[in-house]
């Protein structure tokens, strides 16, 4: 699925990137993909919304922990928002 993403970049007005907040095994993969998106020339000026799902789960990583693992503090060249969601808040 990720292979088709670049076909939509030029028409995009915002990037919404979803991370499973309870899946510690894929955080490194999420970090790598997030970095690729942030550095992509077609997305360089777009605002980013990072949505952390499964916030209601007991094993969901804390906001500070995820911010550190995903290095969100380094995202300073654009509008960036980190939101938490759960099936109970939809």
**Widest beta sheet: strand line-up:** 1-2-3
CATH superfamily: P-loop containing nucleotide triphosphate hydrolases
What is the helix fraction of residues, given as a range? 10-25%
Uncertain spans, ≥5 residues at pLDDT below 50? none
**What is the count of distinct domains?**
1
Instruction: Count every helix, treating DSSP H or I runs of 4 or more residues as helices.
Output: 2
Order of helices and strands: EHEHE
Which architecture would the CATH scheme give at its second level? 3-Layer(aba) Sandwich
Report the strand count.
3
Which term fits the overall shape?
globular
Helix/sheet category: alpha/beta
Q: What is the third-level CATH name, the topology?
A: Rossmann fold
Largest sheet: 3 strands, parallel
CATH class, named Alpha Beta
Give the overall average pLDDT: 87
* Terminus-to-terminus distance: 24 Å
Computed over alpha carbons, the radius of gyration is 13 Å
Quaternary form? single chain
Content of β-strand: 15-25%
Secondary structure: elements and pairs:
Blueprint: E1 15-20, H1 27-39, E2 48-53, H2 63-69, E3 80-84
Parallel strand pairs: 1-2, 2-3
Q: Brief overview, please?
A:
By secondary structure, the chain is α/β, with parallel strands linked by helices. It contains two helices and three strands, in the order E-H-E-H-E.
Write a structural description:
The structure is a single chain. The chain is α/β, with parallel strands linked by helices and 90 residues long. It is built from two helices and three strands, in the order βαβαβ. The protein has helices at residues 27-39, 63-69, and strands at residues 15-20, 48-53, 80-84. Strands 1-2-3 form a three-stranded parallel beta sheet, with helices on one face. The longest helix is centred in the middle third of the chain and has 13 residues, at 27-39. The radius of gyration is 13 Å and the shape is globular. The protein starts with 14 loop residues before the first strand and ends in a 6-residue tail after the last strand. The mean pLDDT is 87.
């Amino acid at each position: 699925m990720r292979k088709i993403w670049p076909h939509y970049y030029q028409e995009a007005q915002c990037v919404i990137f979803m991370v499973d907040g309870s899946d510690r095994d894929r955080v490194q993969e999420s970090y790598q993909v997030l970095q690729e998106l942030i550095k992509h020339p077609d997305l360089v000026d777009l605002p980013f919304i990072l949505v952390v799902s499964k916030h209601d789960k007991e094993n969901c990583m804390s906001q500070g922990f995820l911010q550190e693992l995903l290095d969100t503090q380094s995202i300073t060249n654009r509008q960036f928002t980190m939101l938490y969601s759960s099936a109970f808040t939809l």
